[in-house]
Amino acid sequence: MRPHGRAQISQSHPRALAVCDRCGFLFNQDDLQWQWDWKQGPRLFNLRILVCRTCLDVPQESGRTIVLPPDPVPIANARPENYALADNPVSPLGFNPAGVFTPTSSLGGTTGNLIHNGGLESAFSWNGQSSAVNSTSVTGLFAPQTKPLVNKRFATCAALAVSISSFQNTIGKNWNGNPATPTPASTVAAITHVVSGFAAYAPSDQPFLRTGPTGYQFQGSSDGAPWTTLASGTTAGTAGETLTATTSIATAYQFHQFVLQGDGISNVGVAGLSIAISDAAPNDI
Fold it and tell me: Which terminal residue of the chain has fewer beta carbons within 10 Å of its beta carbon, N or C?
């Protein structure tokens, strides 16, 4: 009898012989199986080779086309995660690298805790110049910006991902902290200014406080604590809101800050802050 490899031979029940297309061993033809595989498509493709059990491969999943399911049904009042902030808590969006060497605001140092997204300095960057320097008249007094900020989204504003409860979300100026010059010695009188008003701008895609209207205060201080409230009120709670207010207190302070009331849950942001200094002409500072 001829060698029959791994096939079974029976005179009473004859079965055809066949060679495995992979290993070349001899088997009964009905013991061989078709080899299927994924060929960059959504269904298995017959490779048209017959193989034994040992040579039979599992279809390679890397060749299978990924079929994406349909988008979920949209819901009302969705609250998506702020992915830009979550992936990069201190984002460079809206930040001018030149400000590291030549700060955009030559009037005092920027203070506050709205350090996320564009950071504190982004609220004072206004078309390439400080938002505090906005009067072109040598004899005129400072006046807040009146033109709105266009398309300055929350991701590029001075912000906090989660607001602090009560009136603790701040951004402002320390007039004595001009980063362009050395800090005066303690024996030298501090630099102070009288502020007659301010203008604050909400991000173009949400209110100051994401959930809606909230309280605000504009404060002054001689040493950073305690603070005197110069103006207060409630925001309208609309996206792109422009908030302006005047003060009647003619006291000069070293520190001024804009404060928003938070809820400890929602994010808070300020697109722009313009402070009206009434005790000096622009070219004097």
Answer: N
